[in-house]
Amino acid sequence: MCLLLGAAGVGKTLLVKRLQKLSSQGGQGDLGEPPPTRPTVGTDLTDIVAQRRITIRELGGCMSPIWSSYYGTCRSLMLSASCMHLLGLLSAEQLSEVSVLILFNKIDQPCYMSLEEIKSLIRLPDIIACAKQNITTVEISAKKGTGLTGVLHWLQEQQRTSG
Asked: Where does 6-147 have alpha helices with state H?
């Protein structure tokens, strides 16, 4: 199980739909226009097949107060959230051994900060140095499909290494 956590409106649902389409195309090809989405209310389970079946549990942004009740089933974590959420998740004992992928989504927006600017702003190198988890960062545009092949490969690698 891979948990997908993030604040409301960061593009979690679109990301899952795009990953599902990309995996059905063998990790290649044109994703076409982005599909319509609605905010996730509660939780949503989606299976993608990328060599093996990977289940992604997306938790709606409004559910952040109870995210911890889902940590026990988590083998990997994709996160698109605030620095406060990141620090809270990295300090959770149940998540101490999971691999974490931090998603910097919406790089297609004109006001998007560079990855280096964001890392500096939230002191990400310091956070990564102190974390118990293996942390990877990736810039993506779920809308345009940019960087999603890398996310799919990361998910595949997590499945390989976790059993």
From this structure: 12-24, 83-90, 115-121, 124-130
Question: Hunting for tokens 């499945």 — which residue is that?
Answer: 159
- In the chain, the amino acid numbered 107 is I
68-102: per-residue pLDDT in tens? Answer: 999 998 999 998 877 888 999 999 999 999 999 99
CA separation (Å) from 15 to 31, 91, 101? 12, 25, 13
pTM of the predicted structure, to 2 decimals: 0.89
Cα–Cα dist 48/21, whole Å: 8
Reduce the DSSP state of residue 53 to 3 states and report it: strand
Q: Angle of helix 148-161 relative to helix 12-24, nearest 10 degrees? A: 80
Angstrom distance (rounded) from CA 34 to CA 57: 20
Nearby residues of 32 by Cβ (< 8 Å), 6 or more positions away = none
